[in-house]
Amino acid sequence: MITREATEQDLKILLEFEQGIVTAEKPFNSTLIDGEIHYYDLRHFIKSPDATLIVVEDKDEIVASGYALIRETEKDYYNFKTYAYLGFMFVKPEYRGKGINKIITDELVNWAKSRNISEIRLDVYAQNESAIKAYEKAGFEPLLLTMRLKE
């Protein structure tokens, strides 16, 4: 397996991955609308100097993806000004459980470190236990849980 930066030629499969993420997340979030949802501006991540969108290939087939995006903090009380936000973590179902998520997160963390960014964040649904375990294996720890009330 190899990792590489995504190109615009990869957009078709990446858009399929995006819908796979949406489908997987709908059971965790009753506020998502029905129908097709687009979370990401994938073309922007491919072109931006402040982002990297990577894919993992196995025998010339894209089997996984993830991105890192440099963001500026909106809070003046943090001890960092910028951080890397990770997202679009998707591994094809038949490739899950093989350490590919760790390969992706390691690659994205190394990209952030190469830009002198030490604060790295991502979001995961509190009920998504398998994803939480995968991120904890990669060294992440819980920080904040968003609560909601629907009346």
Automatic annotation (TrEMBL):
Q: Which GO terms describe its molecular function?
A: acyltransferase activity, transferring groups other than amino-acyl groups
Which domain of life does this protein belong to? Bacteria
Which keywords are on file for this protein? Acyltransferase, Ribonucleoprotein, Ribosomal protein, Transferase
> Entry's InterPro entries?
Acyl_CoA_acyltransferase, GNAT_dom
One GO cellular component this record assigns the protein to is: ribosome
Q: Which Pfam family name is an example for this entry? A: Acetyltransf_1
Q: Which residues form the N-acetyltransferase domain?
A: 1-151
Q: What is this protein called?
A: Ribosomal protein S18 acetylase RimI
Taxonomic source organism: Chryseobacterium ureilyticum
